[in-house]
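USER: My hope is that you can spare some time for a protein that puzzles me. I am handing you a single protein, as its sequence and its fold in token form. Walk me, if you will, through where the backbone shape changes along the chain. The protein I mean follows directly.
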Amino acid sequence: MNYAETLFARIKNAVEGWPHFETPDFLQTLEDVAQEAFENNSIEGHLAALLIWHQLCEEMARLLLKDAQFLIQLSVYPAEIEVREKNKQMFGQVLDALGETVSFEQKQEFLDACRNLNAQRIEIVHRLTQHTSIAEITARVVEVKLLYEQVFLAFEEAHDWFRGSFHSFAKDSFIDLMEEDE
């Protein structure tokens, strides 16, 4: 398939063509595990929850970056723009790339909460022995939990906004191609 055919196939298939989590059920399982670990109210449970929330935030950021890249491809069509996935990017690098892309609903709120969560994780995990008590670590992880909830809410609004934009493109810009395809 050429570029136009590939893009057209993606826009008309909302389930598989639009950006999405590859393993949503497993990500939900991880979120459940994090919640259970946090509720155990132990240092190991809190640290496990922190690490899982961090990874889930990274996955959300990667998906929003794919959303933004797909929106750009749709916006510049019929011009072509190839998007290469950069492997092994760290969370901060993904956030920087997302910060440099198109504006979208909840972008700044998402980025700010993610950066704050990442800074908290670094402070808690990489300076674990410098804390003065388990209670101090617990208090910091409670802050991270609240940040994770902010990230999640901002992500949901942003991803929904992108999906609405993709639907508009499918309906308004690619409708002629869809009718020809039928």
